Amino acid sequence: MKIVVLNGSPDSRRFELDCYLAELEGLLETRGHVVKSFELRAMNIGHCTGCWGCWVKTPGECVIRDDSQKVCRAAINSDLLLFASPVIMGFTSAVLKKISDRLIPLLHPYFEIDRGEIHHRKRYERYPAVGLLLERATDTDEEDLELIRDIYARMALDFKSELKFTGLTGNPAEEAADALDRL
Amino acid sequence: MLLTVFNGSPRGRASNTACLLEPFLEGFSETAGNAYELHYLAREKELEEHIRAFSEAECALWAFPLYTDCMPWAVKNFIEALAPFCGRQSNPSLGFLIHSGFPESLHSHNLKRYLEKLASRLGCPLIGTVIKGGSEGIREQPPAMTRALFRRMRELGQVFGRSGGFDPVLTARLAQPVRFSVWKLPVARIGLKMAELMYWNRMLKGNGAYEKRFARPYSQDNAEE
Ligand SMILES: Cc1cc2nc3c(=O)[nH]c(=O)nc-3n(C[C@H](O)[C@H](O)[C@H](O)COP(=O)(O)O)c2cc1C
């Protein structure tokens, strides 16, 4: 399976998530998966300005030319999109949120009704499964984790997909690799 | 009461958030002695100023749109900058006004949960959360379409100006529909069709991009730089 990892660690002085991802990516590759990892903090990615250019000017592509195009291209062509982040103030990092907002060119402005709710329509034929990998902070509790999961599950729904995996860096990387293997 | 308002929309002054805030703040200002200051989180360079404004506020209102089922980047960036204030004694009381493009308020429920937990994490007394669905386009709609909404926002502001709280009846009304009932879905479908024609297609055509609206620029994995 093609796996795209979005490493949302904001700071190279924090090692835990970086180390964990390096180990996990190694394990996944030995098991035959193709892993492409983006270290978001080192990339040139601006924030969404809400201009809708990606839907009404250059359909499917953001009008801001930066590294987000690479991420969008890799993401839509993957089987699994893994959002990885330390928990900061009860949610994933701002640097990860920035790219999440920049993924909407992958959707279409038109609407559809899905499970009785309004959502946008697909632009592409298929969308990757969504995974979530979190590094707890000292103030992270179970409620925080549940909330983050719930938010990413809804986001997955909006991206025509499903949250198929949630992991914590406190657990062994083999466990995560096993779980991802089973998808 | 002195109210410190943070507009968290990436569109800043030209946002639907600003349109919702305007009547609210008018209503709020009707009570003698009330005053507010307004900050735009989209102005990244002013982050230090925003932190200072938060730290000195007695009462703060955060208003912003739902972005991929949560807060826009600038709002999370601001939240991270507030980490040093967790548990500080003199933190302001905190109210939230959140709104979404999709018409149902259920899309914002998780964000409400997050924000209310955030208030307790910061140690800010919680005023409450107002949710409004279907906000995309209100900044361009003719007055006839927004009159009822803005009247409600003004009333909400008036009550807030007097009592320091969100009126529960108005809040519940603004949050309608939470979701569409089965028999209302066909009506919703017509509304969506109208939005496609009048909103998206009009913009697509205006940009000469209508024929390309179904483009899939990334459909081949061929640009491995
Ligand atoms: C990147 C992006 C993501 C969005 N995500 C959502 C969403 O998940 N759910 C929703 O209902 N609306 C979503 N919207 C729509 C906005 O909430 C809506 O357009 C809102 O009215 C914008 O308000 P503003 O003008 O104050 O910024 C999104 C818009 C953008 C640009």
UniProtKB/TrEMBL annotation, chain A:
Q: What GO molecular functions are on record for this protein? A: oxidoreductase activity
- Where the record annotates domain NADPH-dependent FMN reductase-like, the positions are 1-103
Q: Does the keyword Flavoprotein apply?
A: yes
- Kindly provide the name given to this protein in its UniProt entry: NADPH-dependent FMN reductase-like domain-containing protein
Keyword vocabulary terms for this entry: Flavoprotein, FMN
Listed Gene3D superfamilies: 3.40.50.360
The regions listed as transmembrane in this protein's record are none
Species annotation: Candidatus Glassbacteria bacterium RIFCSPLOWO2_12_FULL_58_11
Q: List, alphabetically, the SUPFAM superfamilies matched.
A: Flavoproteins (SSF52218)
**PANTHER family for this protein:** IRON-SULFUR FLAVOPROTEIN, NAD(P)H-DEPENDENT FMN-CONTAINING OXIDOREDUCTASE YWQN-RELATED
TrEMBL record, chain B:
- Domain of life of the source: Bacteria
- The molecule here is called Flavodoxin-like fold domain-containing protein
SUPFAM superfamilies cross-referenced by the UniProt entry: Flavoproteins
- InterPro entries, alphabetized: Flavoprotein-like_sf
Output the Gene3D superfamilies linked to this UniProt entry.
Answer: 3.40.50.360
